[in-house]
Fold this sequence. Notes:
The structure holds two protein chains of two kinds.
Chain A: E1 4-7, E2 10-13, E3 19-25, E4 31-37, E5 43-50, E6 56-57, E7 68-72, E8 75-80, E9 89-97, E10 103-106, E11 110-114
Parallel strand pairs in A: 2-11
Antiparallel strand pairs in A: 1-3, 3-8, 4-5, 4-9, 5-6, 7-8, 9-10, 9-11
Chain B: E1 3-6, E2 11-14, E3 19-21, E4 23-26, E5 32-38, E6 44-50, E7 56-59, E8 62-65, E9 75-77, E10 86-93, E11 101-102, E12 106-111
Parallel strand pairs in B: 2-12
Antiparallel strand pairs in B: 1-4, 3-9, 5-6, 5-10, 7-8, 8-9, 10-11, 10-12
Amino acid sequence: SAVISQKPSRDICQRGTSLTIQCQVDSQVTMMFWYRQQPGQSLTLIATANQGSEATYESGFVIDKFPISRPNLTFSTLTVSNMSPEDSSIYLCSVEWGQGRKTQYFGPGTRLLVL
Amino acid sequence: GNSVTQMEGPVTLSEEAFLTINCTYTATGYPSLFWYVQYPGEGLQLLLKATKADDKGSNKGFEATYRKETTSFHLEKGSVQVSDSAVYFCALRDQGAQKLVFGQGTRLTINP
């Protein structure tokens, strides 16, 4: 499977500020995904990022709040903008990997606390 | 739409007990099914998967069989260990889709 790293691993931020989370993969992948996991909850897909095109956002998530970059086949960033305490969550990136019916593998996550 | 329903948690067992975590799904096509595990303070790890009916996924002593007739993918382990304490997520991805749909997660605690 692909090895995925995220930076930062955790952060504490003040409301109204923005944080950019980085996701790095050790292999070239077509699809990268960003998920949010609110405290004690399951995972919700924020958006899908293809290299060289605009990210596709799920219902309830907008580009102004969660801008995503995908400059190449091994890297993506998610920015959480104008943060509020409700944005306190774990943010995870994932990639598709494998032959045929691909499998998603996840990074270790970024734990964000907004005060 | 597609959905995954997991057994309500939390689940607490003694070491060496038999484990079952129920998972049922609703899908419009022929989905692939997954179990992911999240250990305390970590991200998600793929535990096992099955891509078609009657497939059995297995890993680390855990097993799950893709049952199309009952739309289920229950996770089982014959003898759990303290180190199995984690949150377990059942998920599906419909054929031709990219999006994973997750269940709500089941927190498992194993006591020595």
